[in-house]
Design brief:
It is a single chain. By secondary structure, the chain is α+β, with helices and mostly antiparallel strands. The protein is built from 16 helices and 13 strands. Strands 3, 4, 5, 6, 8, 11, 12 and 13 form an 8-stranded antiparallel beta sheet that branches. The N and C termini lie far apart (56 Å).
Length: 573
Amino acid sequence: MEAGGRARRGGANGRTGDDWAVVIAAAQEGDRRALDELVHGWLPLVYNIVGRALNGHADVDDVVQETMLRAVGNLGSLRDPDSFRSWLVAIAMRQIRDRARRRTPPQRLDENDTTPHDTADFAELAVLRLQLEGQRKEVAEAVPWLDPEDRQLLSLWWLEVSGELTRRELAAAVGISRQHAAVRVQRVKERLETSRGIVRALAGACPDLRDLTARWHGRPDSVWRKRLARHIRGCAYCGDTREPVVPAERLLVGIALVPVPLGFTLSLTLGGKTAVAATGMGWSAKVVGALTKPAVAVTAGATLIAGGAYVVVQTPDDPPKRAAIAPTADTRPSASPAATPTPTPSNSPSPSPSPSATPSTKSAVYGSVVDAVDSAPNPGTPPGTLPQRPASGVTSSGGAKAVMQHRGDHVDLSGQGYVLVRWQISPKSRPGALVMPSWTGLKGKVFHVASGGGRRMDDPMAGAPDGYATGMGGPAIGYAVLPDGTQQMWQNEYFYLDGSVTLTVNERGADYGIIVFPSTREEIEKDIAYGPPQDAIRYGIVRDTGDDDTPVPQYLTRSTPVDPATVPQRSDV
């Protein structure tokens, strides 16, 4: 059974995109049969994306479960059923990236270690379950030679070529423009062809290669990929393909999804509730009711085995609106030790709060402190604790993830809680002066409370990948230049809203986009606690003082100008 609701062909159970829209809408309204069909129909797509991206790692089941849990729990916030596929894929990619951030640094491999893996290789699963032969088998076996980031993108491109995704959906899932996606896909294809050459060479009988690999541990990795590729480039025997090499995209057309393993168990458990599974049962009506109550959807416990689930859910008396995403951990301090690390001694000023967030007086009124140019903090200084603020949930007109890439794109936010604004700057597409987004029509208050994502966008990037010396650009591709007096943005910027406001992209000059997510205090603390020990460039910082002297963002106004780009840099609220 294939999932995906393809644009060109029928999806699971032969359904077209229009058919899936009907099913999704019915599930949102509480139809238990529709929800059951939805989960069964789309689970294979998620399984293939995660499995190929993680190459069959033991975490695949956990990431698939977390993806489906978040999709089920937030289905009520999906505004357009036609966008379900891209929405689901974006959730899966975010869970894959979150897993990569949480993982412990891999130990250095011992070349003399011949211990076999304890997890199944997804390439092997693909070959066996799809009965791949010849060059199609070669492509599948080449995937493990790619770096993790390349495998993540390849997992989407593979589905694009086979008709399961569109390029627009691929770009949205990665959070980049379609032009940038084209560049990145081309580079992954080039690395895939190199890896195919390695697979062919290892299957050959080159005596020099046999000597070279005498100490090889038998597992693909970047070190041996470079060694083997270097040998192949200089070896007449290994470089002779003996038969025409068919481009990977032609080989992937028509390949089905790898079936979900028989007996695969999807356990959706949170909140300490007890779940009981029974084969043949549909999704409980209780979880369907929770779909219109995102505040309690994440407290549900469920186990799905071959199509059945029984779910226990706690239902509040006054649920929030359907599009609201209400946190479950904002009303108590985080229990995670990693979220509140003890600051280490440093000669540099503590980055939490930042200079722009330093309170001037206890009687400061709202809006008296505005973001301003600040210096980069010490990369190795952990953040302070994010103060407690009431958070009943934020409603976004863009749903769980609003991708804004063009001038005039905007999102309306209302409620009480946290919002993440994630930056994507693309000087490679178009460098120049960057016209900042603006906040308009403010009613109530909005604060700039934290910055994270593991880097400021002007931090140097090792090796200048794709020409990016920093996140703002590089000499080979040009730079995005901030207006004088504008505070340098980080990858992730966090805001606290108590009221309503509209955020608009004013893209002119430099190419950029932002992605807006309703967030939680717990997610913020996890993000900013991610630092150099986890291979990030720097820890995040807390800007929130817990009072009205917390800085407000620049380019903020209570008015609603015809052209949002005319909002002054110095906010006056």
